[in-house]
């Protein structure tokens, strides 16, 4: 599916796009908020190129259709409700991975549960920074993924549980540990090697820079601000329309 593979300038969001695809049939709410996050992040100036705008437009079309189909479901119509759902899913996955890791199970299921939990915690930053315990859980999950994969590559035994206090491996304070989390079947494979992604280009494939006029910047910025205001009142339809206006302005300059 085209939404599972972002263009090169948005490659840093490839994993979240893949998670969105993996959950599309089993947990569409997760898919919705993963794509909403990518669409929101993709509107930043550093991703302003034709490839990115085309991809974000497709994401916005998906979000509009999903919102219309689920117009009476608060998981879609009330962002705070939907993000609470995503948080609970992330915490369940984190708990599952933590218990497996603590018991010495360093298999693909453990790594992927940490991996998906970490990215879902990132999705929760859609409306700003998360609470300290969520931020710490995200750091711990990402630390564990890198630690386990690195140990396996070097032929060493990973350390079960935290390595030491006071760093990213410290156990975050998470209440309500449970065993009811599960990964979608398509996400149960061993993840690819995690490495820093190159900075996104702000040019199109032909090498043309998208220099914006002051007037266009002001109009696009105004539309984006209206979108943010609409989200504050949980009016997603208006927010999406304003975001489309901003994209249209950026595309036509």
From TrEMBL:
Keywords: Cytoplasm, Endosome, Membrane, Protein transport, Transport. GO terms for biological process: late endosome to vacuole transport via multivesicular body sorting pathway; protein transport. Residues 179-189 have a biased composition (Polar residues). The keyword Electron transport does not apply. Pfam families: Vta1, Vta1_C. One of its GO terms (cellular component) is endosome membrane. InterPro entries: Vta1-like, Vta1/CALS_N, Vta1/CALS_N_sf, Vta1_C. It is a peripheral membrane protein. It is found in: Cytoplasm; Endosome membrane. Residues 216-250 form the Vta1 C-terminal domain. Residues 14-153 form the Vta1/callose synthase N-terminal domain. Residues 155-213 are annotated as: Disordered. Belongs to the VTA1 family. This is Vta1 domain-containing protein. It comes from Mesocestoides corti (Flatworm).
